[in-house]
Amino acid sequence: MSSELIFESQNHKYCWLGRDETGIEEGVQTNQYLIVDNGRGILLDPGGFGVFSRVVVNMSEFVDPEKVDHIFLCHQDPDVGGGLASWMDMTPARVHVSALWIRFLLHYGVTTLDRIEGIPDQGGSLTLSSGNRLEFIPAHFLHSPGNFHVFDHASGILFTGDLGAAIYPKGETPLYVEDFEDHVRHMEGFHVRYVATSQAIAY
Questions:
Q1: Would you tell me which of 21, 85, 118, 147 could form a disulfide with 109, CB atoms 3.0–4.6 Å apart?
Q2: How many CB atoms lie within 10 A of CB 48?
């Protein structure tokens, strides 16, 4: 499935970068998103090595790789950032991830930590060149002990990573939720298994 522009204003875009159709992600489907602000890119959860080529092609519809200034990883899982070394080779981006996971990134083939920005447990923010701001909101144990969501003030979109993930039958995964009660039915298995306590949500 090709990419889709889900929000656009004068100098700000929020883009979904498609879905794997090759079978590489047969076990774990992922979603990659891109924010383009004043012509500069912020890549959210770029995914594993297997989807790298597809994400590059779809991203290039909106911004050139050399204009990607930031990469955000909501947590440490390989389906979120397993292709990080390739992204760091292709782009000049600084990488924003929980400070808890910085030492694990070397296992993804990352050879230097000079461009890694650790997000402290209490969260933080990133002010873009336009003055628009992204908020890194703590979401620990939803489902990772070092987990963050991103609120984009310009679009009003909250990026929640794996929280809200649903497992649909093959070929039936919608981009937009039209029937939330039905969506909850597909969410339940993942959340019961991977979000260990409702206290994490209440916190």
A1: 85
A2: 22
pTM of the model: 0.91
What residues contact residue 64 under an 8 Å CB cut-off, 6+ apart? none
Domain span including residue 47: 4-165
pLDDT band at 75; cut points 50, 70, 90: very high
Interatomic CA distance for residues 107 and 104, integer angstroms: 6
Cα gap 6→111, rounded to integer Å: 34
Q: Which two tokens stand for residue 30?
A: 């992922």
Q: Which of 150, 170, 163, 172 is nearest to 190 (CA)?
A: 163
173 within a domain of the structure (yes/no)? no
What whole-number distance in Å separates Cα of residue 118 and Cα of residue 70?
A: 13
Q: How many distinct structural domains can be found in the chain?
A: 1
Per residue in 91-142, pLDDT tens?
A: 999 999 999 999 999 999 999 999 999 999 999 999 999 999 999 999 999 8
DSSP state for residue 107 in the 8-state scheme: G
**Closest among 93, 115, 108, 110 to 44, alpha carbons compared:** 93
